[in-house]
Write a structure and sequence with these properties.
mainly alpha, single chain, globular
C-alpha cells in the first residue's frame, strides 16, 4: 500500500484583520522605559536637585532688601561701568574677582539696578554648583551615597543663602567644583587652561589648583606636565599684579580675613584647631 500524502496544514483563521507592528509605538514608549529602568538612588538624587533648585529660585524671587555687606559691594556694581570695575579699586574697600564683577554688571545693565538683578549671578552659580556636585558625587561615591551628598548640598542653609547674596561665595563653590571635575580627567593642559580662567572668577580656586597641580606633577614625574599646567600660574601672576596686590594695603580686609589663615608656621597647629572648632 502507498503511504498517505502529507497535505499542507490549512492556514489558521483569525478573528480579525492582521495587525502589523507599529514602530512609532516603541519610539513613544522609549522615554518611559528608560525612566522606569532608573534605580531609586538616581531618581531620589534628581528629585533632591529639583527641590534645591526650587528653593533657590523662590528665595531669589522674594527680592529681599540688601544688607550692609551687599550694599557696599552693590554700589560699585551700580555706579561703575564695566571698564571701571575692571581697572579701578572698588568703593568702600571691597574686593571681588574681575569676571564676577563684569558678569554682575551685565545683568544690572539688562534688568536695571534691582535686588534681583544684582543676585542673578549668585543664583546661577548656586544652581550650577548643585548640578556640578551631583556630577562629582556620581564619580566619587557609591550610588547609595549620592543622594546623601546631593541632599546635603540642596538644602544646606549656607549654600541656599549664598545663592542669593550679592557676594561671590556661590560662584566660589561652582568654580571649585569645575576645577575638581577637570582635575578628575587628569589632563594637565585642560586643567591649566581652566585654571587660567578660574583665577579671574574665584579667588579660592588658587588653593585647589595648587594642590591638584602638585599631585599631577608628582604622579607623572615629568617636566612636561608642569609646563602644561603653567597657563594658570601665569594667569594668576597677572591677576595678582593687577587685582590682588593692591588689596594688600587694605587694612579692613586683612583684619577681617586674618583669622582664616595661620599667623606663622608655628601657629599652624593652633590654627588647625581653631578652624576645626569654627
Amino acid at each position: 500500500m502507498s503511504s498517505p500524502r502529507l497535505l499542507p496544514a490549512a492556514p489558521r483563521r483569525t478573528s480579525g484583520p492582521l495587525r502589523r507592528a507599529d514602530p512609532a509605538r516603541h519610539v513613544r514608549h522609549e522615554p518611559l522605559r528608560r525612566l522606569l529602568a532608573l534605580e531609586w538612588p538616581t531618581l531620589l538624587s534628581a528629585g533632591l536637585v529639583l527641590l534645591g533648585l526650587q528653593v533657590r529660585l523662590l528665595q531669589w524671587a522674594g527680592g529681599r532688601s540688601l544688607w550692609l555687606d551687599e550694599a557696599l559691594l552693590a554700589r560699585s556694581l551700580v555706579e561703575r561701568s564695566s571698564a571701571e570695575l575692571a581697572t579701578e579699586p572698588l568703593l568702600h574697600k571691597q574686593a571681588a574677582p574681575v569676571l564676577w564683577l563684569l558678569a554682575s554688571r551685565f545683568w544690572v545693565e539688562q534688568l536695571g539696578p534691582t535686588e534681583r538683578a544684582l543676585r542673578v549671578v549668585p543664583l546661577l552659580s548656586g544652581c550650577l554648583a548643585l548640578l556640578l556636585l551631583w556630577r562629582l558625587a556620581t564619580r566619587l561615591l557609591s550610588r547609595w551615597l549620592v543622594p546623601v551628598a546631593v541632599g546635603l548640598a540642596a538644602l544646606h542653609p549656607g549654600l541656599v543663602y549664598y545663592s542669593t547674596e550679592v557676594k561671590p561665595y556661590a560662584t566660589d563653590v561652582a568654580a571649585v567644583l569645575v576645577v575638581l571635575l577637570v582635575a578628575q580627567t587628569q589632563r594637565p593642559l585642560l586643567l591649566g587652561l581652566t585654571g587660567a580662567v578660574a583665577v579671574w572668577v574665584s579667588f579660592p580656586t588658587v588653593f585647589l589648583l595648587a594642590g591638584t597641580s602638585l599631585v599631577l606633577v608628582l604622579r607623572s614625574r615629568q617636566l612636561r606636565t608642569a609646563l602644561l599646567l603653567a597657563p594658570w600660574v601665569v594667569s594668576l601672576a597677572v591677576a595678582y599684579l593687577l587685582v590682588l596686590r593692591p588689596l594688600r594695603n587694605v587694612d579692613v580686609l586683612a583684619q577681617f580675613w586674618g583669622y582664616s589663615f595661620p599667623r606663622s608656621p608655628g601657629d599652624l597647629p593652633a590654627w588647625s584647631v581653631r578652624r576645626a572648632v569654627d
